[in-house]
Amino acid sequence: MVNILLKLRRQMVITTLSLLILCLLLVVRVKYMSITELPSPPAPVVDDVSIQTVHKYNISCSAIYDMDPIEVAKSLVIRRHHIVEDTDESLRNLTSDCPLFIKSRGYDKVCVTEEEREFPLAYSLVVHKSAWMVERLIRTLYTPYNIYCIHYDQKSSPQFIAAIKSLVGCFSNVFIASQLESVYYASYSRLKADLNCLSDLLASEVKWKYVINLCGQDFPLRSNIELVAELKKLNGANMLESSWPTEYKSWRFTFHHELMSANYEYEKIPVRTDVKKAPPPHGIQMFTGNAYFVVSRALIVYLNSSVVVKDFLAWSEDTFSPDEHFWATVVRLPGVPGEVPRSEPDITDLMSMTRLVKWQYLEEDLYPTCSGAHNRAICIFGAAELRWLLHYGHWFANKFDTNVDPIIIQCLEEKLEEKSKLFRSLASPSCRES
């Protein structure tokens, strides 16, 4: 009899839980089955004229941040069925009237603290598609005291190039690199694109303190005022990945590579030959990392005048993905500003705060499962990772794609704007009044 009662009780618990789950699913379905009928937030109004800028979705980012299951479910419905494309042409049309664009996107309302004015930052943006994503990246990081160099791939679509040219025409501190490359995956051209921007940034009148390079699928996890505070703590040091090369990666720079045609998305790719390269010049010890960095102005000035660095750069031209060992190696050269001594341990991508990338094969071991999608084993982040991204500790993250999940970008913009206003109001009376 007791066993029968226990079985009945267990069945009732299971039935109750099943009903609760079913009810939750029904609530989600009923609430959002007609999501197309939900109103979108109204377009910005400037001087009584409704302006169409980047599309905004009718969703609560605060609820997404708090991991509310209903709102997260809503974000999934949106991304699967109701993504609205923000075209390059629409950005070009909006930026054809610069005063209207500046006002509608809120660039004229950026309140900058004295600390930010005295610590300007430079950015090198190497991009090739999605002009609105480039604009949103700049807008999130924007102050009139920073400076932004855009290098677009010469192979980019005419619509994208036209939108970028129109965009930079609305700013005095955003410009296109004076020398442009056709950028091919893992080739010297990717490194050269950044070097072209760095040369232009160094020649500008803005005496920036640090330079940060980004691509079009990166997005910040810190506001400008937070970045300034973090960079001041570095006190002239640099922040980037730099590790002793593994045997697996050593082939990249021990053999001569030639750029050859490829029958897939990359068009051309460096291919290893049987010709062994001479050792690096000047007895340089090789290190590996990635293409992305946060480095001081002093380091760029040094690199620009160093014969050792110029010889190393020339030696690297026929290697595979030279951007992934060039920066990692030069910060270890004796005597460079912010030098990382060779005797110091590896600086991994998790130790460097520069850029957070979630690798598929490390999910569940080092970080939670990707809630978006994967591309070449890299997570394209989804809305459910909003809170995790903002609290993990890194300053930037990759990858984001509005065609995969537009909600994560919208919510990062909103949360960073909230933090920026809070920190600036605490730091400056004028920002508190605005």
Automatic annotation (TrEMBL):
Entry GO terms, CC: Golgi membrane
Localization terms from the record: Golgi apparatus membrane
GO-annotated molecular function: acetylglucosaminyltransferase activity
Principal location listed in the UniProt entry: Golgi
Keywords: Glycoprotein, Glycosyltransferase, Membrane, Signal-anchor, Transferase, Transmembrane, Transmembrane helix
Membrane topology: Single-pass type II membrane protein
Pathway given in the UniProt record: Protein modification; protein glycosylation
Pfam family membership, one: Branch
Family the entry assigns: Belongs to the glycosyltransferase 14 family.
Name this protein carries in UniProt: Beta-1,3-galactosyl-O-glycosyl-glycoprotein beta-1,6-N-acetylglucosaminyltransferase 4-like
Lineage: Eukaryota, Metazoa, Chordata, Craniata, Vertebrata
